[in-house]
Amino acid sequence: MRIVQKYGGTSVGSYDRIRNVANRVKALYDEGNEVAVVVSAMSGMTNKLLGMAKEMSDNPSEREMDVLVSTGEQQSIALLTIALHELGIPAVSVTGRQAGVTTKGSNTRARIQDIDPTYMNKILSEGKVVVAAGFQGLNEEGEIQTLGRGGSDLSAIALAHAVGADLCQILTDVNGVYTSDPRVVKNAQKMDEISYDELLELASVGTKVMQSRSVEFAKKFGVPFEVRSSLNNEPGTLVIEEKPSMESVVIRGVSIERNQARVTVTGIPDEPGWSGKILKALGESEVNIDMIVSNIANDGFARHSFTMNSDDLGRAQAALKTILADLAGGQIETEAGIAKLSCVGIGMRSHSGVAATMFDALGEAGINIGMISTSEIKISVTVEEAEIEKAAQVVHDAFELGA
Amino acid sequence: MRIVQKYGGTSVGSYDRIRNVANRVKALYDEGNEVAVVVSAMSGMTNKLLGMAKEMSDNPSEREMDVLVSTGEQQSIALLTIALHELGIPAVSVTGRQAGVTTKGSNTRARIQDIDPTYMNKILSEGKVVVAAGFQGLNEEGEIQTLGRGGSDLSAIALAHAVGADLCQILTDVNGVYTSDPRVVKNAQKMDEISYDELLELASVGTKVMQSRSVEFAKKFGVPFEVRSSLNNEPGTLVIEEKPSMESVVIRGVSIERNQARVTVTGIPDEPGWSGKILKALGESEVNIDMIVSNIANDGFARHSFTMNSDDLGRAQAALKTILADLAGGQIETEAGIAKLSCVGIGMRSHSGVAATMFDALGEAGINIGMISTSEIKISVTVEEAEIEKAAQVVHDAFELGA
After folding, report:
1. What confidence tens digit (pLDDT) does each residue in B380-399 have?
2. Is CATH 3.40.1160.10 correct for B2-172?
3. Distance of CA B146 to the CA centre of its chain
4. To which H or E segment does residue B123 belong?
5. What digits encode the pLDDT tens for the residues A172-211?
6. Residue A208: partners with Cβ closer than 8 Å, 6 or more residues away
7. Which CATH class is domain A2-173?
8. With the CA atoms of B95, B100, B103 and B109 taken in that order, what torsion angle do they form, in degrees rounded to the nearest 10?
9. Rounded Cα–Cα distance for residues B7 and B79 (Å)
10. B52 touching A, CB under 8 A?
11. B106-125, pLDDT tens digit by residue?
């Protein structure tokens, strides 16, 4: 098999951990696999480099930040390659440039445009391990660019696609994707597999296994990948194209997101245009709106409710006050201290009664539901933050995910 | 003027020093010059990176060492560029690759094969400062290579040639090239100018202003350069093509080299081949031979004397014992604790009596001369190490270099 493995900053965060990674790669190589490894900078290194730039300027050039920060991964690839040599494994390091990664867009948050795998394929065909720098590439002008948050996962999945890997393994500090947060729901189970869409929905509701854009890339190009632990050898969770048998599972997982707030705007005339104005004002103030619920109240005025992270609440209030100043009678209500509970599963499409099961479980537990929002494969509700853990457990139990 | 400046690791060894360099570059830029700056890694950084590799292996791959060590300069260029921006100076960093430096030969000690200045010329023509990483380039396979000791000086001179600079300034921690070591000869003078050949001869006898290969490159391509201090604004020493007026100075400088040893091999038949065998054996033992004096003694046997650094003496003795084992009667005499004094100057070609003046001065001071060796523009003698300082002063005085 041709396998791409990705190890994050924590996994290469010390000399001993780098040696541990080298041993894991050796095991895979000794089984007869062709292996390419994508690594991040040693944990702490990126922050250290950012700190160096801050010594020079409060507002350093993003182009130069990329020149500086990309040295972190370059150091990791050299050290891991040397560690592999020490174990007798032939290995060759490649920077983002040598991996053939072309980027575009803004520095510090570039996108991958293309990957030319010629050099990596040459190394692999010589029976050597490729050790590639994640998170980086060159734009068409030959300038170094970094990919921003989650960039190394994206590098790994894109490289796996480029070299035609059979599998991409994302090695991390969790054992895989769980049916719910194991710190909250004690009998949460590690899933054997999950579809891209389900992971995307879970990611969008706070399950921070991976950045959405990496999963989206994998989905777009059909790259199967496995999320597994770098600390043990247990199988993780395979993230793959949806297949018919997956629909037999009604709900794949229950996700929670804390620290939410709700803003409700009332007294808005039920006329076209106001919703757009409000959302535009919030967007310009960099408020990330999550759920949106709108309807017409008994008084004939529109009533718009939004949820957002509590950290955004101040900015949202300020933005809305400005826009409502024009409108006598427009009012803002806010509620902090709420949380969101989501059920996700492609089985929802072919199974009826999912919402009823979820709401019944919450009702029996005496938990009041605030807002409700649904998509094709997700149902989200808000509850009091103090009740979120109990809510997660009873819903998890109701769908028998813990067995 | 188009000027290339090179700052070494000490000059960019702290955030304050980087800011100091930025201010110096700004001053040059504000005068209307086109400026390209070549920088080394921050002092201590290269050793730190070497230390990281040693944590992984006692014998790390030289290819990977170059990947690792080259990150040092890449960090420097980003930091200096950010510091220049902070002063309002438009500046763009370039790695060895972006500077168009193609290398060849072995990793960790590569040679510069070619420089394509297109990108640097573009930046300069836009009125921006180029901040280039010294010490590094890419070989034809696109692999990162470093240039070894003195590599950043070489980068600067080669870049100055490539962009057609009017002048290359090597900024260092000395004020320029002196007529002798100022710690020994108190009235030693900073020279205004010196020819490439003279500096090469001084470099070869221990005046470690610059590595010979950088001077040789400058000579080959006629790149004028100035050695000057990064700590003040005084003019330094201009190193240029020899010109007729230079011959009016009989002796340019007096150089000393301590810690020398002499090995004399006696009882060798005066037959062809023996000198070659001896030198070959010493070379294979990595003994760096300096002076060689051979003649025939009264007994009809050849007598070969060599000088070398005292550190090489043990290896030389071991190598010679092996080769003399074949030869009954061949003997080795050794003498440590000697030093070498050299007078260098192209004026020597057109002035007679230089050796006489030198020997007279030493004789009058009661200093005994051991071996003598001459080239077209240099006379070297050995003396007892205890007498070298006195010897340097009297010879320096004899040629009136101190006035």
Report:
1. 999 999 999 999 999 999 99
2. yes
3. 17
4. helix B118-125
5. 988 999 999 988 999 999 999 999 999 998 866 555 678 8
6. none
7. alpha beta
8. -30
9. 13
10. yes
11. 999 999 999 999 999 999 99
Q: Does A331 touch chain B (CB under 8 A)?
A: no
Residue of A15, A61, A87, A140 to mutate for B, most B C-beta atoms under 10 A = A61
∠ CA A230-A232-A238 to the nearest 5 degrees? 70
- The yes/no answer to whether this complex scores an ipTM above 0.95 is no
What would the 3-class secondary structure string for chain B be?
CEEEEEECCCCCCCHHHHHHHHHHHHHHHHCCCEEEEEECCCCCHHHHHHHHHHHHCCCCCHHHHHHHHHHHHHHHHHHHHHHHHHCCCCEEEECCCCCCEEEECCCCCCEEEEECCHHHHHHHHCCCEEEEECCEEEECCCCEEECCCCHHHHHHHHHHHHCCCCEEEEEECCCCCECCCCCCCCCCCECCEEEHHHHHHHHHCCCCCCCHHHHHHHHHHCCCEEEEECCCCCCCEEEECCCHHHHHCCCCEEEEEEEEEEEEEEEECCCCCHHHHHHHHHHHCCCCCCCEEEEECCCCCEEEEEEEEHHHHHHHHHHHHHHHCCCCCCEEEEEEEEEEEEEECHHHHCCCCHHHHHHHHHHHCCCCCCCEEEECCEEEEEEEHHHHHHHHHHHHHHCCCCC
- Predicted TM-score (pTM) of the model is 0.87
Do the beta carbons of residue B153 and residue B211 sit within 8 Å?
A: yes
Q: Which residues of B touch A97 (CB under 8 A)?
A: 97, 142
Q: B142 and chain A: CB distance < 8 Å anywhere? A: yes
How many residues belong to chain A?
403
Right CATH for A254-398 from 3.10.100.10, 3.30.43.20, 3.40.50.300, 3.30.2130.10: 3.30.2130.10
Q: Which two tokens stand for residue B20?
A: 């100091």
Considering only the beta carbons, identify the residue of B56, B78, B82 that sits closest to A15.
B56
Residues A133, A136, A139: CA angle, nearest 5 degrees: 140
* Per-domain boundaries in chain B: 2-172
User: Taking Cα atoms as reference points, which of B287, B249, B245, B246 lies closest to residue B265?
Assistant: B287
Nearest to B64 among A64, A93, A97 (CB): A93
Q: Does B98 touch chain A (CB under 8 A)?
A: yes
* AA identity, residue A396: H
Which tokens is B108 given?
A: 């960790």
Alpha-helix runs per DSSP H in A163-240: 196-204, 212-221
